[in-house]
Amino acid sequence: MAILPIVLYPNDILEKECIKVTAFDHSLEKLLDDMYETMVFADGVGLAAPQISIGKQITIVEVEENELIELINPVIEQKDGEEIDIEGCLSFPGLYGEVIRATSIKVTFQNRHGKKVILKAEGFLARAIQHEIDHLHGVLFTTKVLRYVELEEEG
Ligand code: CO
What we know:
155 residues, alpha+beta
């Protein structure tokens, strides 16, 4: 595995529509493994392919330890409720803001083997998935921030 450089804002690739994945092959598996190592190293809970300069519909989320979800070609089929909470993004180090997201979602995607998956999520997991899927359409959380907040950095 390898730790990849994370693209920081501003960079054109962060604001472009990503293309769908059609090949579920060894290089996709390697990319997913590298993305995971990169996300953990950066202490993030989500990472989207454009953040490592790959313009494809691939994202990973891990809001609870050992509960990694790999979403390829994800589509949000249903959204319910609204809530406001604080988000950050590995492409905007040190920046945090309040964003409205759906409280619960139903999302369909493919896993690393190309198998179709349906997932229902709520709360912080639903928020993280919505944030990451936005990345795949070139939408950054800063375009949705209601109010920026100061957060104490840990450590
Ligand atoms: Co982000």
